[in-house]
Write a structure and sequence with these properties.
The chain is of the alpha/beta class and 259 residues long. Helix content is 49%, strand content 14%. β5, α5 and β6 (177-184) form a beta-alpha-beta unit. α1 crosses α8 (227-237), α3 (66-80) runs parallel beside α4 (103-131) and α6 crosses α7. The longest helix is centred in the middle third of the chain and has 29 residues, at 103-131. The chain is globular and about 55 Å long. The mean pLDDT is 97.
Length: 259
């Protein structure tokens, strides 16, 4: 992927950071995005530059703001020379029953988990079409394929993200641009760790037991998928070998959706 430029949203930690490392290792220049302390982000950018000898930039764009997203894409074009790869990974979670779900939380989850991907794709596509090459990978979830209680906004957003993926794949089907989605199951990210900690506190059980129970409910392998595994899958979808993989939703979920 030498000479290719990649934007990965929500990439200062978790799955997004795993994807950023995988694409950088394959030779791509990287635009990181996400929240965090300035010093920590500066260290991350410096470390990645030294490790991979690639261009590495950073955007603090807020994924809930379309103008910020457009500016992020423009920054990648300016600093990295283009946008060849777009990985829409940024996401947030909130849990409550439908009747108790705050409308403002619904709006926030839909904005960041679904609408942000639309705005980023819309901004990046003309640059990809100009080169007749591009890779768009949307990080969805098993919750884009099946549902769970207490997660109405997240499930709706991830189902919508798979629909968006298919439309973009069809509209770019006769070009060198592909669009696919990856559907991770449980991955040890800060978002998931928060759910484990809350479960342990609520039930008065050790964190390790809460972790096991979380996996046992959904993931038959009883093992987390890792950010590195997700990153490797993204790198594959960006490769020439995946040029005719279009509009798929690839589960990496330890058998969750096989049940």
């Amino acid at each position: 992927m030498k000479g290719k430029a990649a934007i990965i949203t929500g990439s200062t930690s978790g799955i997004g950071l795993g994807v950023a490392h995988a694409l950088a290792a394959a030779g791509a220049d990287i635009l990181l995005n996400g929240f965090g302390e300035r010093a920590a982000i500066e260290n991350l950018v410096s470390e990645m530059r030294n490790q991979y000898r690639n261009k590495v930039a950073y955007s603090a764009a807020d994924m809930s703001k379309p103008a910020d997203i457009e500016a992020m894409v423009a920054q990648a074009t300016r600093e990295l020379g283009g946008v060849d790869i777009l990985v829409n990974n940024a996401g947030i979670q909130y849990t409550a029953s439908v009747e108790e779900f705050p409308p403002e939380k619904w709006d926030a989850v839909i904005a960041i988990n679904l609408s942000a991907a639309f705005h980023a794709i819309r901004a990046a596509l003309p640059r990809m079409k100009a080169r007749n090459w591009g890779r768009i990978v949307n990080i969805a979830s098993t919750h884009g394929l099946v549902a769970s209680t207490q997660k109405v906004a997240y499930v709706a957003a991830k189902h919508g993200l798979l629909g968006l993926t298919k439309v973009v794949a069809l509209e770019t089907a006769r070009s060198g641009i592909t669009c696919n989605a990856i559907c991770p199951g449980w991955v040890p990210t800060p978002l998931v760790q928060k759910q484990i900690d809350e479960r342990a506190a609520k039930e008065g059980i050790p964190v390790e037991r809460a972790r096991h129970e979380l996996l046992a409910e959904k993931q038959p392998s009883l093992e987390f998928a890792t950010p590195q595994q997700i990153g490797a899958a993204v790198a594959f979808l960006c490769s020439e070998a995946a040029a005719q993989i279009r509009g798929v939703a690839l589960p990496i979920d330890g058998g969750w959706t096989a049940q």
